[in-house]
Design brief:
Blueprint: H1 2-7, H2 14-22, H3 27-38, E1 46-56, E2 66-70, E3 75-89, E4 94-103, H4 107-121, H5 150-166, E5 174-177, H6 184-193, E6 197-202, E7 208-211, E8 225-228, E9 239-245, E10 248-259, E11 266-275, E12 281-288, H7 295-304, H8 307-317, H9 329-353, H10 362-380, H11 388-401
Parallel strand pairs: 1-5, 5-6
Antiparallel strand pairs: 1-3, 2-3, 3-4, 6-12, 7-8, 7-10, 9-10, 10-11, 11-12
């Protein structure tokens, strides 16, 4: 807050910034209104993407402080977890954060995690297998009824907020989530939130089955599952594309498959890569709840999910997501939402700046406005204010001193 007040001009005192951070702000509406006014192109296609990010904190009093697993550190670290949903422009291939929420682990979640950890430590040696088949007296379970964990509750709330905001303006069909949400629970949350379809990734060793196509024997229930899918020896009937590059052959297969843990059939795309020299293979399994989605769109949409990671990077590196020192609930909420809001503001400002600096990035943008402030402060010390033409020339010249990418000769900034 002190840093913001120092760089603010008239009306941006430290006390004013303090009041701003203590106010309750409808950030979802603010982000949507800014996006609709300055970033939305109604002719383009948009998909929703969601992910979590962990913000490390060294203190002990920050609201929501807990230990969360961080992929950057590859271990649990003390910090805050934030779940974000963004809109991705398919043509621009750019993600715009829309709704966010801090993840607060409940006591039930902590107890379940601890119990699972203790059970893993006390696991006994493998016992001999019992009688094969279904246990006597067991009943079918409704797979559409799920256990609502904290993450699923947050996802459900954010999907509801997003749909409520864009309902009258945009038609969003697909929600893309990473492999952490590649399960039936997340699929049911997405499907029950509205007319949405999930795109995600399954574990590489997931047990998928072809639908049963044989003849009914006339006894017992009709078979549902056919042969189990062998990802390294997929039938040629499901091959949709083959490419070779630098000694690596990529085979793409698409089929409708069943999983015992999912309540509905899945549109599955299997990407198998083969080293032509060593014959070593690796595969990735993508899926969607939309059975009519083409394989190329499914792959492309899942690739676009990574654009939200750039939002997290920019918010942490440039807009203070890793640096704020607020500890109270309202202040923490305003701090991380302001960081994501500035990600969208920077996208809009970069459009203008790139007219003069085609390769400009966020560092060039910050350098430009920092230079303006330097020039203004120097002008205030002069006895007479120079002409506007000279001031603009000083702005442009000083901005180039710290710029990463050069501007077009003779051009002026936004």
């Amino acid at each position: 807050m002190l840093g913001i007040s120092r760089w603010s001009e008239q009306g941006g005192s430290y006390r004013t910034v303090q009041r701003f951070f203590s106010a309750t702000i409808p950030w979802a509406k603010v982000m949507w209104l800014f996006f609709r006014q300055h970033l939305l192109n109604s002719q383009d296609t948009y998909i929703a993407a969601g992910d979590e990010t962990v913000v490390t904190k060294a203190g002990k009093k920050t609201f929501g402080l807990d230990r969360f697993f961080s992929s950057l550190y590859d271990k649990p670290v003390p910090g805050l977890k934030i779940f974000a949903l963004s809109l991705i422009n398919v043509r621009e291939r750019t993600s715009y954060p829309m709704v966010t929420e801090q993840v607060i682990r409940s006591a039930e979640d902590k107890a379940a995690t601890q119990a699972k950890k203790q059970a893993k430590q006390q696991r006994k040696p493998a016992q001999p297998k019992g009688k094969p088949g279904r246990p006597k007296g067991s009943k079918n379970k409704d797979k559409t009824q799920i256990e609502w964990t904290t993450e699923l509750q947050v996802l459900n709330r954010l999907l509801g907020k997003l749909l409520q905001l864009v309902l009258q303006t945009l038609s969003v069909t697909y929600v893309v989530l990473d492999g952490q949400f590649g399960n039936n629970n997340a699929l049911q949350v997405v499907r029950q939130a509205g007319s949405l379809h999930l795109i995600s990734k399954l574990r590489h060793d997931s047990a998928l089955f072809f639908p049963f196509t044989g003849e009914y024997s006339g006894r017992g229930p009709r078979p549902k599952y056919g042969d189990r899918i062998n990802y390294r020896h997929m039938p040629g009937d499901y091959l949709v594309k083959t490419t070779s590059e630098r000694g690596i052959r990529t085979d793409i297969y698409q089929t409708i498959a069943l999983h015992e843990c999912f309540a509905q059939p899945l549109n599955v795309v299997v990407i198998v890569k083969t080293n032509l020299q060593t014959q070593a293979q690796a595969h990735v399994i993508l899926f969607s709840s939309d059975l009519d989605l083409a394989y190329d769109l499914l792959i492309d949409y899942y690739r676009l999910r990574f654009q939200i990671e750039f939002n997290f990077r920019d918010a942490k590196q440039y807009w203070g997501l890793e640096d704020f020192m607020n500890v109270q609930e309202t202040q923490v909420t305003n701090a991380f939402n302001l960081s994501f809001f500035m990600v969208n503001v920077s996208h809009r400002l970069l459009r203008d700046l790139r007219c003069h600096q085609p390769e400009a990035g966020v560092l060039d943008l910050k350098t430009f406005f920092r230079s303006r402030r330097y020039v203004i402060e120097v002008i205030k010390t002069l006895d007479r204010e120079p002409q506007a033409v000279l001031i603009q020339g000083a702005f442009d010249k000083v901005a180039q001193l710290g710029a990463i990418h050069p501007s077009i000769p003779g051009s002026r900034g936004p």
